[in-house]
UniProtKB/TrEMBL annotation:
Keywords (A to Z) from UniProt: FAD, Flavoprotein, Oxidoreductase
Organism: Marinobacter pelagius
Ranges of residues in domain Acyl-CoA oxidase/dehydrogenase middle: 163-271
Known cofactor(s): FAD
Start and end residues of each Acyl-CoA dehydrogenase/oxidase C-terminal domain: 282-453
EC number: 1.3.99.41
Broad class of enzyme this protein falls into: oxidoreductase
Catalysed reaction equations from the record: 3-(methylsulfanyl)propanoyl-CoA + oxidized [electron-transfer flavoprotein] + H(+) = 3-(methylsulfanyl)acryloyl-CoA + reduced [electron-transfer flavoprotein]
Sequence similarity: Belongs to the acyl-CoA dehydrogenase family.
Name the record gives this protein: 3-methylmercaptopropionyl-CoA dehydrogenase
Gene Ontology terms for molecular function: flavin adenine dinucleotide binding; oxidoreductase activity, acting on the CH-CH group of donors
Domain Acyl-CoA dehydrogenase/oxidase N-terminal: 41-157
Top-level taxon in the UniProt lineage: Bacteria
Amino acid sequence: MPVYKAPLRDMKFLLNEVFDYPKHYESLASGENATPDIVDAILAECGKFCEEVLSPLYQSGDEEGCKLENGEVTTPAGYKEAYHQYMMGGWQGLSAPEEYGGQGLPASMGLLKQEMMGTANWSFSMYPGLSLGAMNTIYLHGSEAQKQTYLVPLTEGRWGGTMCLTEPQCGTDLGQVKTKAEPQGDGSYRITGTKIFISSGEHDLTENIVHIVLARLPDAPKGTRGISLFIVPKFLPDADGGVGERNGVSCGSLEKKMGIKASATCVMNFDGATGYLIGPENQGLECMFTFMNTARIGTAIQGVGPAELSYQWALDYARERRSMRALSGKKEPEQVADAIIHHADVRRMLLTQKAVAEGGRAMLYYAARLADHMVEAHTRGDDKKAEAYDDKLGFLTPILKGFLTELGYECTNLGMQVFGGHGYIREHGMEQIVRDTRIATLYEGTTGIQALDLLGRKVLLMTQGGAVREFTLKIANFARKHLTDKRLRPYAVELLKLTAQWNLLTVRVMLAARKDRDVVSSAANDFLMYSGYVTMAYMWLRQSAVAVDKLDNGGEDSEEFYQAKLATTEFYFERLLPRAQAHATSMLSPTRSLMQLDSDHMAFTG
């Protein structure tokens, strides 16, 4: 089985040359210690941990899975030791506030760590990843006493955390939440209900698990307006802040899943468990979703990560596997056959993976800069600035989450295809990447939900097309700067055409929706995918513009590295970007072909 190699050269290219993160960090209070040498050292050390500790557990963790006995979950062999190394390395608190035990580095540093960990071993990375959601919620909405009690051990990694939203009768539609919270005389609440699909709900990696739970107070308004948020620890903290008596929360069962089997996905039962209100009554959703845009950037990693991992392993295989001769003539005449990397169709699959992994990584790093500014504004109490950056990020996150996970899943299947029959068996690990990645298009909102969020809420309802106009203006202004360079002109011209088309499509969908509300739902998926292809094209032009400059004036990497960027840009614009036009055509199709067939006539059987 191949091993993961951290793509540090590409990461540093984006950080230092494309997006100028050193200057970006200088503009942040939290970036004071994020000097180039410190960032390089962190990336190298994290890459080493992922390559040497997490990657070797990837396949064995899948084969062993988690086990539930007497309400206790045991993680696969090696996970406890790996988590201990993770905790002792201080990785959990990398971007957490210093006053609660963190290192106070920018939020984007945490994203870089998550990318490498998630690519090396997504199942493992979910345990500390879920804790970050709990940490953000407590930091933003908890009282100072709650922060001291829960945030410090969470930041240190001694305690884990979860986010408990979904119930058997509701997933995305959280207005149907039934879990009850009854006030007690001491200021606590009695929490009763069942939550499903709870990642890291029960495990043996930490001494305590802090559940962030959505529940309803008595006489609360119906729907989403009547949901409150509660802290419900597995063990109640004692007077010294340590682990006290067991609370009334338990794991009822482990979900039997298609993939990420080393991640404990639990049914959690709250049987009169003691909980503590966090944030105002009946504003639980607002509190929980404050940093949801940053969470969706994290989920988008499971589009980029698997594309990268599958590409690395497929590329190695394609260089070694020999089959037939290249149609253009023998490439390795001394061998019995040519390596399959010489076949054009194999190249198509490999370059698709490369273009998506590197283009998607650029999209993530672009968004991470916005997240840094948003978090900084929150920390300073500048609500207006925080909201402005959250809006910019809010437009991009459904594109990142929906588009990148869909293409990431496509790339894992391409990687398996490169292996042929060997990809279908477990030995080489390719089918595991496919299984593990399938969930990415489902959780944190399915692709359809992301599409409705983008088109229905962010574009039509909230901004009347303004979000598209603002972003496409930025793209167009960048493209115009590169019209005079013959190496970049074709891409700049194409992007200018696409920005105009993107706005026209938005207007046409908006006008059509006034007459037929189903237009929003029928066009949403195509609108999201179109938006993704154009956004990735923008990222490839940005990379190529830097590559051209470095070829002319010298850069941090080799000439071959920059030439590879130009070649991949050409591939993307010629072979992948044309897909956008199919989505443009489809999104404008009338809803009749979708809605005219009576639901009772969908099938005729028996």
